[in-house]
Amino acid sequence: MRACPIKRSYNIQRSGAFVRNLSRPRSSASLQRGGIRPATVVSQVPRPAVDRSFSMHATQPLYASPSADSHSVGNGDYLPKIELTPIESAICQLLDDACRWIEKHQPQPDPERSENAQVDYRDGWTCEARIAGGWVRDKLLGQASHDLDVSLSSLTGYVFALFLEAYLLSPEFLQSDLAQNSSSPFHAHSSETNQLVGHITKIAANPDQSKNLETATAIVAGLSLDFVNLRKEVYVGNSRIPIMTFGTALEDAERRDITINSLFYNVHTRLVEDFTGKGLSDMRDRIIRTPLEPQQTFLDDPLRVLRCVRFASRLGYIIDQEIFSCLKDERGAEIRLALSSKVSRERFGIEVNKMMLGPDPAGALALIEKMHLYDVVFGPPPGEIIRASKLGHEEVERAVLLLAAIRTIRDEHGIADIPFLSNIKDDEESQRLLYYSAALLPLRSAEWEEKKGKWQWAGACVILRGLKLAVRQTREPLICLWKSANILHRPTKEVFDPSNEQYRGRFIPSLGSNKISDRATRALLARHPELHRTDIGVTIELRLLWSLISDLTLDESLWSSSTPSAHEAEKALQSHIAESYYDFYRQLEEEGLLSRIDERVILDGKEILETLQVKPGALMSIITKQVEAWQFDRDLRNHSIEDAKTECKQWLRSEWDRGGIVPLDERAAKP
Prior knowledge:
The protein is α+β, with helices and mostly antiparallel strands. 43% of the residues lie in helices and 9% in strands.
């Protein structure tokens, strides 16, 4: 590997004056629309010299200025100020000092660790470090950020990380203010500098999956730092396959996903740098825009189209119309093909999961639909075998409106109107599962051939193969909710209809034709073995809520047109269908069954066999289910466990002797 020295087309001067164009002053209010805190106007003011001593309290003024060349480092009269925490200030000073140390000593990386890499130190060679992207954006928005992406002007990320490690072991560092000052975060470890940098991990580039840069990751004084070189794309001959090489800060900024992520923080000058001239203004105006033409940006890394969705829904920003236009015409087909074929499914899943955990998953789903990305994101990946027809996307919109209406009811009227909201009111994980379930509604009746001859709900394919999300954290809970929507379907309509007694047997395994009370039926439904999965975070409340939403979504009589409205959603939540769910839950509560859902069956298999003097066999599941029904048909809170067991055994023996539990003819047929 060779480090590629470059002639940078910009020059951040360390002294001199800046001039601001004050012809169009902007108000503080206009800046704060984007969540950015305004700084003071700088006009004909000498740039302050950077104080390289460490201070727990001093924060450098962070005004961006025009650079010496034709590219502006700022784009407005009012520019924001970043307040550094003590550890962030120390990291910036450390990076600055490390760059100066590298320039002075011009070391070579360890051949074994760097695979014989050599740095070509030419005349005038310099090393500059900038913090890039998300950290700058979040700091400008006043949000905490713990992951720093460090961009290097003339070294690869891995080589710089090795040099940083070497600097921390050098006499210069041990004598520096960072190591000597007792208020420095580095001071306590100055005699054990090998603890300051954790294991350095090299992450290779993978162009086939649109990961175009080699990066290095290390933990420095407790913060996660990613190191990577500034980049540009070079095309050789007639090839349209780009080669990534060292670039300028402007070239790197232009290759970022969106303008608000293209900002830099220069650790040497302590300035925010906006090389595209759009990042700060787009933050002010709350716009998601690509630095270059959208098609070029998206084809460079197709995942960026999903990042546009995520940041728009996270920040409440508007996506630039040119992005929508690009995805609607013939360019959109090429981008969607690249998204489904060039991006690893793991990267897919990470972005989508962040949307579902974000502040506005409903907005994210709406944008995915509007940008014609729905089937790419929430459809089974190419090559999977799917059967049965899919529903339309309007069902997703209905479900999302219902979730929004539930939130409105909860916020304005409290949880009394929807009684089972109490345990899922502010649960972020439940929100994630509900919105995933809504997103997968079009696949409710579709099946996927997981293995030859083994068919599974097609939504499981999307989660497992399409988004590569965890089985226990996502796939199993979503399958459980999907089954709930089938088993708990309008619970007080079919299950408790006296003229439809056989229906209970379809809902409750091993019940067969036995008649049990309504109270016992409610308990057994709540304890259904395929649904009662508190071990994966699926509570009875969450199951009922999703089953309700699914029922209301699919009932055409509740929706007047193909464009559902929030008013229709609120009315649906007051319908007789909704009331059946509310009544079901209230009865569980009033009968004291909610607190008993986790109870073990009062008699185990051995006790049942001893009581009836029978051998183990196929009848055991039916007998056990009847014991369970007996148990929950009674309030046993005032009974000791032994008294309850004795009473149950007496009942079981009596019922068995008179030909109950299992009819006599079936006992002979099922030994």
